[in-house]
Amino acid sequence: MNALLNAASPRTGSSVGRRGAPIDATPALVQAGPHRWHLRRSGTGPVCLLLHGTGASLHSWAGVEPFLAARHEVVSVDLPGHARTRSEPGASLSLEST
Question: Where are the beta strands (DSSP E) in 5-52?
Fold first, then answer.
C-alpha cells in the first residue's frame, strides 16, 4: 500500500463530481506487487485513503472527494478486480495478498 501512497504524480487535471463540485485530481497507474493499481490523487494535507465497496470503483467517491480535498490529500483507488486496476495472470485477489 505504501507504493500507492508514495506514487509520484503531479496534482493537475480536473473533472466534476456528482454534485457539480470541481475535482482537481490526477489519475495514475502504479505497479505494486502483481497489481497495476489505478488511483486518483487530489488536495494537500494529511492523507485520506478512500476504498470503494464490491462492484464499484474510485468514481464512487466523486460526490465527496472535492470536499475532503479541501483539507486533505485524497487518494482513491480501484481495488484489484475492479474498474481499471489490473492484475497479473494467476495473481491472488484475496485481502491477504494485496
Answer: 15-16, 22-23, 25-32, 35-42, 47-51
Cell of 26: 490526477
H or E stretch at 2: helix 2-5
Closest by CA position to 58, among listed 72, 71, 34, 41: 41
Q: What is the pTM of this model?
A: 0.72
**Burial (CB count <10 Å: 0-12, 13-18, 19+), residue 19:** exposed
Tell me the per-residue pLDDT of 4-40, one tens digit each, with 9 for 90 and over.
556 534 444 555 454 545 567 889 999 999 999 999 9
